[in-house]
Automatic annotation (TrEMBL):
It comes from Sorangium cellulosum (strain So ce56). Pfam families: GST_C_2, GST_N_2. One of its GO terms (molecular function) is glutathione transferase activity. SUPFAM superfamilies: GST C-terminal domain-like, Thioredoxin-like. InterPro entries: Glutathione-S-Trfase_C_sf, Glutathione_S-Trfase, Glutathione_S-Trfase_N, Thioredoxin-like_sf. Residues 4-85 form the GST N-terminal domain. This is Probable glutathione S-transferase. One of its GO terms (biological process) is L-phenylalanine catabolic process.
Length: 224
């Protein structure tokens, strides 16, 4: 039995769960997965608090230690699996990677609201607020800057896969789900993220899940 257990929300919708899961997968970690369906009957916050002090997913249990919040889990994984090089080795690249990862964790509320993650659907024509459009432009600016300055030697933001890519992977799925018009650099980056075997595995498992959150499924439905 693995010493690591990751508690997740629904794979279809839980962007924060995807971030932590993808970091661990790309690190080559051996871990168990426990899915706690969100907004489902019989799954109150109190149940999640059995595994996560914040009452939110994801949470990583390592022996008697519990780590919660996606970026904290990513930092822990980087220390636990140094050979995976989850942060760029160069100091300047590493500093920028941490900056854009923290920005993803703390910003883009309008984007999250307008385009919630749903990896099982393709939805066209969702109306965007000005704030959501500004968030999309900012994400593309980040991607272009990182690829231009640090992306040599690979197809990800800092060349090889890093925590920063895990932080932005759910945004890549959102852009794909909702058919968001992107510049050429951003389109290629989204394609690279979605082509990861781990991402393909996540999406395949999401399609098998029976759990539905009606509020997210209603987006893009005529009359809603």
């Amino acid at each position: 039995m693995s010493e690591l257990t990751l508690y997740l929300g629904n794979r279809t919708y839980s962007s924060w769960s995807l971030r932590a899961w993808l970091v661990l997968k790309q690190a080559g970690a051996d871990f168990e997965e426990v899915v706690i369906p969100l907004q489902a009957p019989g799954t109150p916050t109190l149940e999640i608090q059995r595994y996560s002090p914040s009452g939110k997913v994801p949470a990583l249990q390592h022996g008697v230690l519990t780590i919660w919040e996606s970026l904290a889990i990513a930092e822990y994984a980087a220390e636990l699996f140094p050979a995976a090089k989850l942060w760029p080795e160069a100091r300047d690249a590493r500093a920028v990677a941490r900056s854009v990862s923290a920005e993803m964790a703390s910003s883009f509320a309008a984007l999250r609201t307008a385009l919630p993650m749903n990896v099982r659907r393709k939805i066209q024509g969702v109306a965007l607020t000005d704030a959501a459009s500004q968030d999309i432009a900012r994400v593309q600016a980040i991607w272009n800057d990182c690829r231009s300055r640090f992306g040599q030697g690979g197809e990800f933001l800092f060349g090889r896969f890093s925590v920063a890519d895990a932080m932005y992977a759910p945004v890549a799925t959102r852009f794909d789900t909702y058919g968001v018009e992107l510049d050429a650099v951003s389109r290629r980056y989204v394609a690279s993220i979605l082509a990861l075997p781990a991402m393909q595995a996540w999406i395949a498992k999401a399609r098998e899940e029976p759990h539905i959150i009606e509020a997210y499924e209603a987006i893009g439905v005529v009359g809603v």
